[in-house]
Amino acid sequence: VHPNVSQGCQGGCATCSDYNGCLSCKPRLFFVLERIGMKQIGVCLSSCPSGYYGTRHPNINNCAKCKADCDTCFTRNFCTKCKSGFYLYSGKCLEKCPDGLEANNHTMECTSIVHCEASEWSPWSPCTKKGKTCGFKRGNEVRVREIVQHPSARGNPCPATSESRKCIVQRKRCQKEGKGKKNREEKRKKSNKDESKETRQESKGRAARRQNREQRENNNKTQPKKRKAPNKEQDLSPVDTAH
């Protein structure tokens, strides 16, 4: 072993040097050179830092540098995140997205253009005027639809979600709220009251007639029968006639 190489290293190093840091790493760790000023120091990490990708070999696992426009990468030719000012598309970092795609400044990716989509129109509403459906001849009716897909930045904008048109109805008077029902209820109560009154009057009349009939029958039973007055011409005796 070289005199500058130490076996009692810290931080995951298998071998190390006082001047160059880690020279080799323990199993499963990645070896990477970090620049400090004009000096490079070897370190051993569980995963490669930003701007590097890992390669595994039988003797050593290394961290290799990504392309200049790549912030993180899977391999040298496949970027997973781009640096500022570039947009990711199919593993590459581009300054401008291809035709048919748009730049998403939130994710810094090239994405498909999404156009607005709306549902079918609803049926026309009843003809109204100032919120009422009576008391007028000309009013308005409306129909609506919903947005089912909102557009992306470069997508076609959404159309109107409501339409209105003039309408004509047969004019009719408006009843005050609850008045029609109240009138019907009052008429029903009055009708029932009149029927009850007539029924009571009929009952009283029948009772009075029955009472008068019973009274006449009782009077006939208690009073003696009147004798029939004799005929004056028949009752004259012969003597009186001769005289």
TrEMBL record:
This is R-spondin-3. GO terms for cellular component: extracellular region. It comes from the Eukaryota. Interacts with the extracellular domain of FZD8 and LRP6. It however does not form a ternary complex with FZD8 and LRP6. Interacts with WNT1. Binds heparin. Interacts with LGR4, LGR5 and LGR6. InterPro entries: Furin_repeat (IPR006212), Growth_fac_rcpt_cys_sf (IPR009030), R-spondin (IPR051514), Rspo_Fu-CRD_dom (IPR043601), TSP1_rpt (IPR000884), TSP1_rpt_sf (IPR036383), TSP1_spondin_dom (IPR044004). The keyword Glycosyltransferase does not apply. Residues 175-219 have a biased composition (Basic and acidic residues). Residues 116-170 form the Spondin-like TSP1 domain. Residues 11-110 form the R-spondin Fu-CRD domain. It is found in: Secreted. Activator of the canonical Wnt signaling pathway by acting as a ligand for LGR4-6 receptors, which acts as a key regulator of angiogenesis. Upon binding to LGR4-6 (LGR4, LGR5 or LGR6), LGR4-6 associate with phosphorylated LRP6 and frizzled receptors that are activated by extracellular Wnt receptors, triggering the canonical Wnt signaling pathway to increase expression of target genes. Also regulates the canonical Wnt/beta-catenin-dependent pathway and non-canonical Wnt signaling by acting as an inhibitor of ZNRF3, an important regulator of the Wnt signaling pathway. It holds the Pfam family Furin-like_2. GO terms for biological process: positive regulation of non-canonical Wnt signaling pathway; Wnt signaling pathway. Residues 169-243 are annotated as: Disordered. One of its GO terms (molecular function) is signaling receptor binding. Keywords: Disulfide bond, Glycoprotein, Heparin-binding, Repeat, Secreted, Sensory transduction, Signal, Wnt signaling pathway. Belongs to the R-spondin family.
